[in-house]
Write a structure and sequence with these properties.
The chain has helices spanning about 5-25, 80-90, 155-160, 225-235, 250-255, 310-320, 325, 380-390, 450-465, and strands at about 40, 45-55, 55-65, 65-70, 95-100, 115-120, 125-135, 140-145, 150-155, 180-190, 190-195, 210-215, 220, 240-245, 265-270, 280-290, 295-300, 305-310, 340-345, 350-360, 365-375, 375-380, 395-400, 410-415, 425-430, 435-440, 445-450. With about 475 residues, it is of the alpha+beta class.
């Protein structure tokens, strides 16, 4: 072997040995061989907590009313944070120590990543300076009380207990424990939206199972229960992502869209109650929604000075709610038990189907059935009910815009056995374009349905009356 190659191998071996020496020197002992820990306990009755990291220095002081932020006693400090800090200080301990270290730089202690100083009620100070993390054990190198002749290895508990910026420690306002939401409104400069719940939907909609309505002048427009439930869950499931400020000023309000341009969401709700308690009265919750950032949407409680970030999808569902987004996708959801007669007008001819309920006794039980007749002839019940199902199955594909729909394709007039303003209802389907038809039901004529579904329906009707 050439002499140069031997020298290269020798140098390589020395590098490996040197790295191994540093690792062993820094580790000191095998943690599995450790039997006792070394106490590094802090003050018995801490009066101040000071910590410095790359983001700056924070100080908390203890007084008669508990812990407070030294630079502003009005800061809403979450008391559990300093309580956890003091608990971590009292339990501080090292797993091992390195005596007379050659260089603090080897352990990252020449420029600590975190320094904690805790003062006892008698003025005694305890300090903890954290350096690098030992790659083998995951522990921090630490100087205790500034004694540079000993380096300790400690777990991450104490470090993590002080790993807080100011707004990580804010005590955010508590949101209500919502029971059931009975009303919801969204007011903003472009207009308002008001929803309300009615326990008894009879007389308000052709379908008495409708309980949620949109107020439009003196009218109430029925809404889809599932869609409203999703909307109200944006309120009942609301949570703060983070606090932006605890003492907002007018300039900040305007910058975050929380001034006059804010959307104001008002929810009426019955608070959740424990079993056995009396029914609670309705309460009101008011939330202001501002502009949106990459982190979320700015929001605040009405009358508060604290501003938060909330989930933008939640905010948008409230801000952009509309009648179009909340009404049922079904054009018509008829309860056929309420229908006595159905008039169908197709190609200029009107066909009237009578619904006659019959009752028979089978094995001691009463069986109810419906007989469908037209022009004195009995119709096949399967074919009729298939057509009725197709009527109820018409789904909106969107809202119409512009003019059109003058050519009527088919219309249905439902004669019902109800004693209200919904005793007679009309559904009209008209040509719109090559892919859609315009549907008009109970006076609402701005919805589109798939043209192929209407074509299938008219073919069923034609087959029913030409068989």
């Amino acid at each position: 072997m050439k002499r140069g190659s031997k020298l290269l191998l020798l140098c390589g071996a020395l590098v490996v040995l040197g790295a191994s020496y540093v690792a062993v020197r820094q580790l000191a002992v095998d943690p599995d061989e450790l039997e006792e820990t070394i106490s590094l306990a802090g003050p018995a009755s801490p009066q101040s907590l000071i910590w410095t990291d790359d983001s700056g220095t924070l100080t908390l002081n203890y007084g008669e009313s508990g812990w407070s932020y030294a630079d502003d006693s009005a800061f809403p400090l979450d008391q559990t944070v300093p309580e956890d800090m003091t608990a971590a200080l009292s339990a501080a301990a090292a797993t091992r120590q390195i005596d007379t270290p050659e260089s603090l730089e080897d352990y990252g202690l020449d420029a600590p990543v975190l320094t904690i100083t805790a003062q006892d009620e008698d003025g005694t100070e305890y300090s903890y300076a954290f350096g690098d993390v030992n790659e083998l054990t995951g522990e921090y190198y630490l100087l205790y009380n500034g004694e540079e002749d000993t380096v300790y290895l400690v777990g991450s508990d104490l470090h993590d207990a002080f790993n807080y910026d100011l707004y990580d420690m804010v005590e955010m306002e508590t949101l209500p424990e919502f029971g059931s939401v009975t009303g919801l409104s969204v007011d903003q400069p472009e207009g308002s939206l008001t929803l309300r719940y009615e326990e008894d939907g009879s007389g308000l909609s052709y379908d008495p199972d409708n309980h949620w309505f949109l107020e439009q002048g003196d009218s109430l427009l029925a809404l889809d229960a599932g869609k409203v439930s999703s909307l109200t869950s944006a309120i009942t499931g609301l949570y703060w992502k983070s606090c932006v400020t605890y003492d907002v000023d007018d300039q900040e309000l305007a910058a975050w869209g929380l001034g006059d341009s804010a959307a104001v969401v008002t929810a009426t709700y019955t608070a959740a109650i424990d079993e056995g308690e009396e029914t609670a009265e309705d309460e009101t919750f008011v939330l202001r929604l501002g502009s949106t950032s990459d982190e979320g949407t700015y929001a605040m409680l009405e009358g508060s000075t604290m501003v938060y970030l909330i989930d933008s999808e939640t905010a948008d569902s409230l801000r952009y709610a509309s009648y179009s987004s909340l009404r049922s996708d079904n054009i018509c959801s008829m309860d056929w038990d309420t229908v006595d007669r159905l008039d169908i007008t197709l190609d200029g001819t009107t066909y009237t189907i009578s619904f006659d309920v019959t009752e028979t006794e089978e094995d001691g039980e009463t069986v109810t059935d419906t007989l469908y007749t037209w022009d004195g002839q009995e119709l096949d019940s399967y074919d009729v009910e298939s057509m009725l199902s197709a009527i109820n199955g018409l789904i909106s594909t969107g809202d119409s815009s512009g003019s059109g729909g003058e050519t009527q394709l088919v219309s249905f007039t439902f004669h019902r056995n109800t004693e209200d303003q919904f005793a007679q209802l009309t559904l009209t389907l008209s040509a719109w374009d090559t892919g859609s038809c315009l549907a008009s039901f109970t006076g609402e004529g701005s919805r589109l349905v798939d043209r192929s579904a209407v074509t299938d329906l008219t073919e069923q009707i034609q087959a029913l009356f030409t068989a």
